[in-house]
Automatic annotation (TrEMBL), chain B:
<dbReference type="GO" id="GO:0005886">
    <property type="term" value="C:plasma membrane"/>
</dbReference>
<keyword id="KW-0813">Transport</keyword>
<keyword id="KW-0472">Membrane</keyword>
<dbReference type="GO" id="GO:0055085">
    <property type="term" value="P:transmembrane transport"/>
</dbReference>
<feature type="transmembrane region" description="Helical">
    <location>
        <begin position="62"/>
        <end position="82"/>
    </location>
</feature>
<dbReference type="InterPro" id="IPR000515">
    <property type="entry name" value="MetI-like"/>
</dbReference>
<feature type="transmembrane region" description="Helical">
    <location>
        <begin position="103"/>
        <end position="132"/>
    </location>
</feature>
<keyword id="KW-1003">Cell membrane</keyword>
<dbReference type="InterPro" id="IPR035906">
    <property type="entry name" value="MetI-like_sf"/>
</dbReference>
<feature type="transmembrane region" description="Helical">
    <location>
        <begin position="219"/>
        <end position="237"/>
    </location>
</feature>
<keyword id="KW-1133">Transmembrane helix</keyword>
<keyword id="KW-0812">Transmembrane</keyword>
<feature type="transmembrane region" description="Helical">
    <location>
        <begin position="180"/>
        <end position="207"/>
    </location>
</feature>
<dbReference type="GO" id="GO:0010438">
    <property type="term" value="P:cellular response to sulfur starvation"/>
</dbReference>
<comment type="similarity">
    <text>Belongs to the binding-protein-dependent transport system permease family.</text>
</comment>
<protein>
    <submittedName>
        <fullName>ABC transporter permease subunit</fullName>
    </submittedName>
</protein>
<dbReference type="Pfam" id="PF00528">
    <property type="entry name" value="BPD_transp_1"/>
</dbReference>
Length: 259, 253
């Protein structure tokens, strides 16, 4: 416990150091204040922005695009992955297609999204869904392949139906992998949600940054970047919490709690 | 499986998908048929655009990526080796990693203008965090028995760094490099879409604005092929660097 406490103090010292550095560098004139405003001004701008409803609306838009896209991609990927894994022969048949489509960067779809949806939620969803779908699908495929062959044979020998095999054998085996996929996908989805807003102009944090940048409001640009980092940390923490909850029965999490 | 049968399973679904694309695309403005996209691909990209737009983009990506790798590993090793330094910097680094890299594009554009330097800087500033944090994590988790053994045998200095620290952390470092590669591609495209008059991202957006739909699709295809090619190259590199790791069976766990 004392070790953790000490680490906490060191961490606070690190954050404090960063703040002091960003405060001192522009104040001492090492960097022009126009390019790097002091930390107090950045945080002050952030506080002032947080008092306006516009910022909260933008934040809500971003999180809505993120959550909706992630949920869509997650459901589609889990269903696809389980079907590919359970139906014999389907894995070999689809592997070349999956391997080809997966590395295609989702920003390649930016012009298509602009054309089809314009600056709206649809564009965000297209990019978010495409990017996070593959993250989850690959993990589901790993998970389904990890099913113990003796257990699979036993289930078959006892005449379990396809549905109960999926429910009681495949799903519990794959769940840790699925959660890993969800964690990776959540981070990617947030990046792509902001990207869509930034480049296509769908409403949200990214669009706010773009507006602040083109009007030359540099403290506001910094403030929004800090905010997006905080939201990113929140997103990661939320998914990790969910992972622990869902996998509370799994040895990998149980041993962590015991230690 | 015999070779023809394997070839059939590999190609059956892609062939079906292309046929479906052909069937759906009949007369649609937004979705030109595969043969037209193919022809546009050859006409558009096997021209001077290859030299003017495509190669500089890929070059900037590789330059930024290499700089981020050097920086990430170079800073990650000392941070990972010192528990105190790690405890101090970890929250700061976690924060920087949580910032979605594309938001840095407008900022760096303000600071550094819109030249080549800015685009490389954008790629470095986005790619460095996953490499840095994974290096720190890999160096932290080095085998203590091996560390003691090194000390016993008097392996120290550069030899210890090369044979023990970097080698032992290499699986984690490669994970970081893989994450950074996909971020790098995103940033390459975005930095050019945002403010530029050349480059792959700029050209594709230009096609879209001028409603040259077939050319736009060929650009999407090219980006996909670049992503695919880089990931194939990366997997080769990973196999080579981590051959000892896969051989030991530890990778399966």
């Amino acid at each position: 416990m004392t070790g953790a406490l000490k680490r906490g103090w060191y961490g606070l010292a690190g954050l404090g150091g960063l703040l002091a550095l960003t405060e001192a560098v522009p104040r001492l004139g090492l960097v022009d204040e126009r390019f790097l405003p002091p930390a107090t001004r950045i945080l002050g701008t952030l506080a002032a922005q947080l008092a306006t409803p516009e910022l909260w609306i933008a934040l809500g838009e971003t999180l809505r695009g993120w959550a909706l896209g992630l949920a869509l991609a997650f459901c589609a990927a889990v269903v696809t992955g389980v079907v590919i894994g359970v139906v014999p022969g389907l894995r070999a048949l689809t592997s070349s297609t999956v391997e080809f489509l997966r590395p295609i960067p989702s920003v390649a779809l930016v012009p298509l999204a602009t054309l089809l949806f314009g600056p709206s939620l649809g564009s965000t969803l297209l990019l978010v869904v495409y990017a996070s779908f593959w993250q989850v699908l690959i993990q589901v495929l790993y998970g389904v392949a990890a099913v113990d062959s003796v257990a699979a044979d036993t289930a078959r020998a006892y005449g379990l139906s396809v549905w109960s095999r999926v429910r009681h054998l495949v799903w519990p085996t794959a769940l840790p992998y699925v959660m890993t996929g969800l964690r990776l996908a959540a981070a990617v989805a947030f990046i792509l949600a902001v990207t869509a807003e930034l480049v296509i102009g769908s409403p949200g944090l990214g669009a706010e940054i773009q507006v602040a940048q083109s009007s030359g409001a540099i403290p506001a640009v910094y403030a929004l970047i800090v905010l997006s980092g905080l939201v990113g940390i929140g997103v990661n923490a939320a998914v990790r919490l969910l992972e622990r909850r869902v996998l509370a029965w799994h040895p990998s999490v149980r041993s962590e709690v015991a230690a | 499986m015999r070779r023809p049968a394997r070839l059939l399973t590999l190609l059956a679904l892609p062939a079906l998908l292309v046929l479906a694309w052909w069937a759906v695309s009949g007369g649609s403005f937004y979705l030109p048929s595969p043969d037209r996209v193919g022809r546009a691909f050859v006409e558009t990209w096997f021209s001077e655009r290859l030299v003017v737009d495509v190669l500089p983009s890929v070059g900037r990506l590789l330059a930024g990526y290499a700089m981020a790798a050097l920086l990430g590993v170079g800073l990650g090793v000392p941070i990972g080796l010192s528990p105190r330094l790690r405890a101090t910097l970890e929250p700061v680094l976690e924060f920087f990693r949580a910032v979605p890299p594309p938001v840095l594009v407008p900022l760096i554009m303000l600071l550094a203008g819109i030249d080549t330097f800015m685009k490389v800087l954008v790629i470095v500033s986005g790619c460095v965090w996953p490499i840095l944090l994974n290096t720190v994590e890999g160096v932290r988790a080095l085998d203590e028995v091996l560390s003691d053994t090194c000390r016993m045998y008097g392996v120290r200095g550069p030899s210890r760094l090369r044979r023990f620290v970097l080698r032992g952390a290499s699986p984690q470092i490669m994970t970081g490099l893989r994450q950074a590669l996909s971020i790098g591609i995103i940033l390459m495209v975005i930095s050019e879409m945002f403010a530029s008059s050349s480059g792959l991202g700029f050209t594709i957006v230009l096609f879209q604005r001028q409603f040259q739909i077939t050319e736009m699709w060929s650009g999407i295809l090219l980006l996909g092929l670049i992503g695919l090619g880089l990931s194939v190259l990366f997997r080769r590199l990973e196999r080579r660097v981590l051959s000892w790791y896969y051989g030991s069976g530890a990778a399966r766990a």
